[in-house]
Description:
The protein has 115 residues and is an all-alpha fold. 62% of the residues lie in helices and 0% in strands. It is built from five helices and no strands. α1 (12-25) packs antiparallel against α3 (66-80) and α2 crosses α5. The longest helix is centred in the first third of the chain and has 15 residues, at 28-42. It is globular and about 45 Å long.
Amino acid sequence: MSGYMCGPPRDVGEQQAWVLRWFGEWGAGEREEFLAELLDRVVPGKATRLPGSLGGLSLTHRPPSIFRCQLRLWDGWFRNWSVDQRNLLLHRLEERAPDFTDRLYREVALTADPH
């Protein structure tokens, strides 16, 4: 995937390729925030121990960062993907960043009802 896009990615494969590209460029803090967002989408309605969420964005006079724009794009795409498509992204993340997905799965397990 080289060069610039001529418009938004139209299919899920392109969307996921962009998310994975961004993920590779994000620093530790951005990945931590993405983990919190991903956990919130994977286990909706459960309180998480991780800080950050798109719902907690503060209104400022500054334009959003590129990272914030990327998260908003991902969020819109993710909400429209099927379960299989979402799982494909997780599988692709497992291949690229197993420590990241291991942590995600540990956090998901912590949200399980012990009863």
